[in-house]
Amino acid sequence: MRGKVSVMNTPKSGKFRHIVFKDGDTWYAVALEFNIVESADDPKLAFMSLLQAVDGYIKSFRKVKGVMKFNALNQKTDPDYEKLWSNLHSSKPVKSPFEINMYGVSTV
User: Is the distance from CB of 70 to CB of 82 less than 8 angstroms?
Assistant: First the structure.
């Protein structure tokens, strides 16, 4: 999938982009639309922690029953992660300083 996720996230459904990468000795998993970052010593553990954090974030949002605006589910992404995402989808990607384990789009 290229570019940003075109679906507007709601409390009931949506999508988010994720990247799992290594910086130094630590693996990071990022959910771009939610600005959630988890870390671990293993890429799979970082990604599983990210999925749990996203699940908790969505459940918390649902509990407040819309008191928060939908933009909490469709945040402006960190420019560095947006640049990394764009580079991963470029026809001429620039070599990243990070070891990339995986990236893609997950369903909420």
Answer: no
